[in-house]
Design a protein that fits this description.
With 256 residues, the protein is of the alpha/beta class. It has two domains: 13-57, no CATH class; 76-246, Zn-dependent exopeptidases (Aminopeptidase, 3-Layer(aba) Sandwich). The protein has helices at 13-18, 21-40, 49-57, 98-115, 167-185, 195-198, 201-205, 224-229, 231-246, and strands at 76-81, 119-123, 137-144, 157-160, 212-219. The protein has a five-stranded mixed sheet, covered by helices on one side. Helix 4 (98-115) links the parallel strand 1 and strand 2. Helix 4 (98-115) crosses helix 9 (231-246) and helix 5 packs antiparallel against helix 9 (231-246).
Length: 256
């Protein structure tokens, strides 16, 4: 990762006869919310905007304020497209830039999340929306240098947001990303995590209730082919990591 510049649910008819309309609406919404959170929310994620949405849904509204068929709030996930709107990031000899590779991958992740019913935001590097941004998870996507370093300069890196209010959740998100991404891409895990990752600026800008992590999906030299020719595979690995965290899936160590 090149460090960015700082400049820039219908109830039965019998039930309707027994309950007043407002209570009926409240109970219906409560059942739906319980289903939503059972499906998408891991233990300990009832902090941040998800709990706020729950409170709003269960707050009594004037009769008629909640219409039948009104969609429930979606679980939000943020995707930072590294360097987008700020600079090019790493630049390869053939003109390929890290920013464009990041954006391609981020866009596919967003599309996949949206297709699954999530509210997915693609955010710029220094997006104003990052200020106090609240979501179930936020992942920043970057890539490493275009230059040849050595034969070991291949693979991906993941770091959790050390500024998260619940560091256990941040570490779990990072662990999910590491496990699912490696399984999807077969790329090795590179252990050279830098301060630019652990102290990534967006981690201090978003709400401390937002669980976050950063991933460098590979090196734009030895990993160039898979990164540029199979962005859907790269995006699927990131998506699987996010779903592992959101759905509180188990992580089984990969056996060499």
């Amino acid at each position: 990762m090149e460090t960015p510049s700082q400049s820039t649910p219908e109830r039965s008819p019998r039930r309707r006869k027994r309950f007043p309309p407002i209570l009926q609406t409240t109970l219906s919404v409560a059942v739906l919310v319980a289903t939503l959170f059972t499906t998408f929310t891991p233990k300990g994620l009832f902090s941040g905007n998800l709990s706020d949405e729950l409170v709003i849904l269960l707050t009594n509204e004037p009769e008629g304020a909640v219409l039948p068929g009104t969609p429930l709030p979606q679980v939000r996930v943020g995707i930072v497209s590294g360097h987008l709107g700020n600079d090019s990031g790493a630049v390869c000899e053939n003109g390929t830039t890290e920013a464009e590779v990041n954006f391609k991958i981020a866009t596919i992740v967003q599309q996949k999340l949206t297709a699954l019913g999530f509210q997915a935001d693609v955010l710029e590097e220094f997006d104003p929306r990052l200020q106090s941004y609240r979501a179930a998870a936020l992942v920043s996507i970057h890539n490493d240098s275009c230059d040849y370093v050595n034969d070991q300069a291949t693979g991906f890196k993941v770091a959790a947001a050390m500024s998260s209010r619940d560091l256990n959740l941040a570490n779990r998100l990072a662990a999910c990303l590491r496990d699912r991404y490696q399984r999807a891409t077969n790329l090795p895990l590179h252990d050279s995590v830098t301060n630019d990752m652990t102290l990534y600026h967006a981690f201090d800008e978003i709400s401390p209730n937002t669980t976050a992590a950063i991933i460098e999906t590979g090196f734009l030299n030895l990993d160039y082919k898979i990164l540029t020719e199979q962005p859907d595979l790269i995006a699927s690995g990131i998506l699987d990591g996010i779903l592992c965290y959101i759905n509180n899936e188990s992580i089984v160590p990969v056996v060499p």
